[in-house]
Amino acid sequence: MFKVLGVDHIGIAVKDLAEVGAFWETLGLASTGEETVAEQKVTTGFYPTPNGSEIELLVATEDSSPIAKFIEKNGGRGGIQHIALLVDDLEAALADLKAKGVRLIDEKPRKGAGGKMIAFIHPKATHGVLLELCQPIK
Q1: Does this model's pTM top 0.85?
Q2: Quick one: fold of 4-136?
Q3: pLDDT, tens digit (0-9, with 9 covering 90-100), for 45-57
Q4: Residue of 20, 35, 118, 120 with fewest CB within 10 Å of its CB?
């Protein structure tokens, strides 16, 4: 059995990290820097909030990136692309959800940004929300 520990971050697809990041800075949030995840064809920028959750800005590094496709489907605009939940045991979460018949995008954890292992649940299983489960790399 696994536990959801809280909302880890909200992922927002953007076209320009610097431009959109400047807005989040006007709210008093500071970037922890940028990180490219080549396997996902994305560069991310995290903006932590005082309660520990983060805003994750995602920009595509290739036209075939899921982020580029999201922006294209969204009329060329960015927007909320996913919500990530922190779990205590990602492998147990995936096994439990699979056993319950939940449709998964990732059946095994993979390396994501921010020092975390990640896996996505298909939006058809969550009534339209792309849900990411994550756990810090040990």
Answers
A1: yes
A2: 2,3-Dihydroxybiphenyl 1,2-Dioxygenase; domain 1 (3.10.180)
A3: 999 999 999 999 9
A4: 35
